[in-house]
Fold this protein.
Amino acid sequence: MLFRKQMMGGVLLLAAGLLLLVPVPVQAEPFDHEHATWNLLVKNNVHWNLNRTASLVNYAGFQKTHDFLKRYLFSLSAVTRTEFDTFRREQQLAFLINAYNAFTVELILTEYPEVTSIKELGSLFSSPWKRKFFLLLGESQNLDGIEHELIRGSGRYDEPLIHFAVNCASIGCPALLDEAFVAEKLDQQLLESTERFLSDRSRNRFDARTGTLEISSIFDWYAEDFSKGWRGYDSLHDFFRTHADWITDDAESVENLIEAALRIEFLDYDWSLNTLR
């Protein structure tokens, strides 16, 4: 099935700019860990560049099939904390990554096609990532809550590569994948997403002449996640030396990166909407 027929009797409330699903206990089908509805939506609406290192999103297409997106979001909101805790680690992480990406698309659609950057969707007092507009695991939640509390702050996952999987609807972000993250191949998907991002020379590159890594600001904001021993990385330098063949274009540069005393420069981040035009 593409989505759950009954999701705890969801009642939709619109109040004070919040989109909240209030659960009423009724019998529901088991959660679809294949994320079939989301998989179909991104397959139809995510478009790769020629090198498959970056993607653009057809938000107009999401808008035309908004009912299917809403049903998928409702299926996410119907999962209780108790049910979530029965999921395997990989199922939990795939659930949270897909939830972040799907609710981000939903946030963009609230002002599409006028919106030109996700940063426009905040307020004077709050960023768009702190805007609570959905229910997840029984709580009113925001995008920051998924990324920084449920994923990074929970101590359950210790996974630095999530930074190349969650998509903030911006040109500077790692690509939105054209398939759902699923438990059975989650590690492969995370590594492939990392390789794509590091291979995009508009966002990450190595200047062998000066020994300088010119890299995305993501690595400035989340440097600590690459310095805790997660996945065996003890520092940003360690991370880039491990993946030297992804951020360089020839064997000589790989050798230079591995052996050099690296300098790091963080590139400006492009917050323009990652929309297909």
Remarks:
- Residues 241 and 259 are 9 Å apart (CA to CA).
- The first strand starts at residue 11 and ends at 15.
- Confidence is low (pLDDT under 50) at residues 1-27.
- The two ends are 32 Å apart (CA to CA).
